[in-house]
Amino acid sequence: MDLENFLLGMPVVTRYWFVSSIIVPLLGRFGLISPQWMFLQWELVVNKYQFWRPFTALIYYPATPQTGFHWLVMVYFLYNYSKALESEVYRGRSADYLFMLIFNWFFCVGLCMALEIYFLLEPMVMSVLYVWCQVNKDTIVSFWFGMRFPARYLPWVLLIFNAVLRGGGANELVGILVGHAYFFVALKYPEDYGIDLVSTPEFLRKLIPDEDGGIHGQDGTIRGGRQQPRGHQWPGGAGARLGGN
């Protein structure tokens, strides 16, 4: 598979997010951009009017010899779960998927500034993973050491693994909270009560027109969650967060 086919095989929103999350950290790694202008901080955004930081913090991650493998794991998770959501649940409706990312990003920015989390890539990827796991909650996933369990438990397993192995957990918890907020207001509540609490703005639909198809019905029914269970394998490796992958 050549690079062009690989990239064109991704839906449009995932493709731009994926490529940006690779190129921008590499530019920082090789000194072509300064990390000092990329991270998120309340004082710099609010008091210094550096309003670009919530955007750069989404696609930048400090890729160093110590963090590089973890960054690659996050990029893999981004590719895997963002592509799955946009291709399956939001198939033909990339504008709706972009709105999901904007919704999650907005709340991630607020929580991360309050908790002094400087980079948004990890909580954002975790929020996407959480939504996928809820839509596919009965799908069986395979984890380390042959562990197998329904996908609904995966975000919590990742949270526990990182809290134990790396002393972290804040990024994962923010992603879980934000992902759950979106899943409830945009998918679960409309399915249960037939009332849409949020809707995609019209300008996003004009930006990315809908195509035919889609697993998630226009009536709010979460059709993706009715797939038959299937296995998921995780890449091995020690010391990586988001499940130590």
TrEMBL record:
Keyword hit for Membrane: yes
Region (Disordered): 211-245
Topology within the bilayer: Multi-pass membrane protein
Residue stretches of biased makeup (Gly residues): 234-245
Annotated localization: Endoplasmic reticulum membrane
Swiss-Prot/TrEMBL keywords: Endoplasmic reticulum, Membrane, Transmembrane, Transmembrane helix
Transmembrane segments: 16-37, 58-79, 99-121
InterPro entries: DER1, Rhomboid-like_sf
GO cellular component terms given for this protein: early endosome; endoplasmic reticulum membrane; perinuclear endoplasmic reticulum
Function noted in UniProt: May be involved in the degradation of misfolded endoplasmic reticulum (ER) luminal proteins.
Name of the protein described by the UniProt record: Derlin
Origin species: Caenorhabditis japonica
